[in-house]
Amino acid sequence: FVTLPIGPQLQALWRHPDSVTKIRDCLRHTTILLAQHNANGVHDYNDVCCGSEYLNHVESGQISDSDMLIVLSMDGAQLYCNKVSDTWFGVATLIDLDPEIRHTKEMVLPAFVIGGPNAPKHYNSFLFPTFAHLSACQKLGLQI
């Protein structure tokens, strides 16, 4: 079982101007959506940022311009053709990126790898180190 901390991966994205521009896309999009939301409502729901719950959190200050939103996913993979799923992966997807590039291999961040031969029985025990790391990043902040 290997955990790959997400904090340093997020910091690395902020070191290159191209990735910073890509990360800031959600902020630009949110500004436009807030104007629509306050005027007569959002008409095209094509991303997470279009949702009223997200926009309400932004308006209330619970989500700020410096926050980064991620989704953590976990799934098994069959590495050999004659064996069942024996390895499980956890990946983080950055919601701040444009939906067109959010799921490209360059932008999906590895979070952990769980070796087999069987599927994990207690997922929470494998997720705990990742969530503990994210909690520390939230409390202490990320140096950028």
TrEMBL record:
Name of the protein this chain belongs to: Uncharacterized protein
Organism encoding this protein: Russula ochroleuca
Phylogenetic lineage: Eukaryota, Fungi, Dikarya, Basidiomycota, Agaricomycotina
